[in-house]
Design a protein that fits this description.
By secondary structure, this protein is an alpha+beta fold. The protein is built from 17 helices and seven strands. The chain has a four-stranded antiparallel beta sheet. 27% of the residues are buried.
Length: 415
């Protein structure tokens, strides 16, 4: 039974005399020097006296203060520190509020943050275009929605109006939405499956035929695979960085952008592997490229530029060689009729017509994983060693002299 009564507490508060009045069992009524009244719970833990505020009077009545004090005594009996438990509860509440506020960040803000986080390795043109496509097609529908609220029906509102007329653009936008929502999930801003995922999800809701036709429509002018060795003979005598970049691009089947931003720390020349992080890949999945012995030797012979992490440094803002350096080199050699990307087709046609490697190995060599979701779940291999054999054969073919010519090594040796 407490010592204080409601009238006593009211009288103490009205008098405003500073001090603490004991109610018993650790509960005290306190009047501060400024005349403010409140409740205090006093206890000892490991021999040290501690005080815990239970709230102001009269907002907290005598009966409520006694109940709060009883709760703290139970916590003590259970071996807990009431102050520590209260602080932890407050921090948990603050964290929940922070999370709730973060989950209200809109898709357009998340997309802009994604571009800023990953765009350093993109060309200026690609960086602008990446955000521009979202501004045109996605933001009008989902731009002001929090990531946690975006569901399949919202993604379909973005894609359906342009799926038939602009299928390739629509699929690029779909991939961008998927990237932004994946990043949001990594930041715990949403839960559950990604509603922009293609395989096993949107492929059941949008026309696969349209997507296939869009891919077929994009044909890059390519050199016939029979002509590649002759070009390689010419490139082997070009010691410029653009010349080496062109050879690296052709011999690895890599995209030009992968080569332009190639960094030394991505290469393990001893084991013959070029490891590209997810943010450097078109499909945003980390990828390992096996290097033929000829490629490793070519890179070993390359001088490194002090102060630059890149194989092919440049003077612009990007820090790497100009986007058109390889193209200009090819045009200067009289090959205005082919594109850099077209050499991937040259490789694929060679593999199809001149080898017996399985289709999935040849496709993975180009970072095309066409296995469906079920296959991917059971077959997680990246076929690295099989691809290594394939790329070794490709390098051997490319560096074999065409009829009537002499073999010119990729690495020029001192006389």
């Amino acid at each position: 039974m407490g010592k204080l009564t409601g009238k006593t507490v009211e009288s103490l508060a009205r008098a405003g005399v500073p001090g603490k009045t004991n109610d018993g069992d650790g509960l005290y009524f306190q009047v501060s020097k400024a005349g403010a009244s409140s409740w205090i719970f006093r206890y000892k833990l490991e021999g040290r006296g501690r005080e815990m505020g239970l709230g102001p009077y009269p907002a907290v009545t005598l009966a409520e203060a006694r109940q709060l004090a009883a709760d703290q005594r139970k916590a003590l009996a259970a071996g807990a520190d009431p102050l520590a438990a209260r602080d932890a509860a407050r921090e948990a509440k603050r964290e929940a509020e922070r999370q709730a506020q973060a989950r209200r960040i809109t898709f357009d803000t998340l997309a802009t943050e994604y571009q800023q986080a990953h765009g350093a390795s993109w060309s200026e043109k690609w960086r602008r275009g990446w955000l521009r496509k979202l501004e045109l097609y996605a933001f009008p529908h989902i731009g002001k929605m929090p990531a946690a609220e975006i569901q399949t029906e919202h993604v379909l509102k973005v894609l359906q109006p342009i799926w038939a007329a602009k299928t390739r653009t629509a699929d690029e936008v779909r991939g961008q939405v998927e990237q932004v929502l994946d990043a949001a999930k990594a930041r715990r801003l949403r839960e559950g499956d990604n509603p922009a995922r293609w395989r096993g999800h949107l492929d059941n809701l949008l026309s696969k035929a349209e997507k296939k036709k869009a891919r077929q429509r994009q044909h890059f002018p390519a050199m016939k695979w029979q002509g590649v060795p002759a070009l390689m003979q010419t490139l082997a005598q070009d010691e410029s960085r653009a010349g080496v970049a062109a050879r690296l691009m052709i011999l690895t089947g890599a995209r030009a952008q992968m080569v332009r931003f190639a960094a030394w720390d991505e290469f393990d020349l001893d084991s013959g592997v070029w490891s590209l992080p997810a943010e450097r890949m078109k499909m945003r999945k980390a990828f390992a490229v096996p290097l033929a012995a000829e490629v490793s030797a070519m890179l070993e012979a390359m001088p490194r530029i002090e102060g630059s992490p890149y194989l092919f440094p440049g003077q612009g803002k990007s820090g790497v060689m100009h986007a058109n350096a390889i193209r200009n080199l090819l045009h200067g050699l009289g090959h205005d009729d082919v594109t850099r990307h077209g050499f991937r087709s040259s490789f694929r046609d060679w593999a199809n017509e001149s080898t017996h490697y399985p289709r999935e190995v040849c496709e993975l060599a180009l970072a095309h994983d066409e296995r469906d979701q079920t296959e991917g779940a059971y077959s997680r291999s990246d076929f690295l060693e099989k691809r290594r054999a394939l790329m070794a054969d490709w390098a051997a073919y490319c560096t074999t002299a065409p009829a009537g010519g002499n073999v010119v090594p990729l690495v020029r040796r001192a006389e």
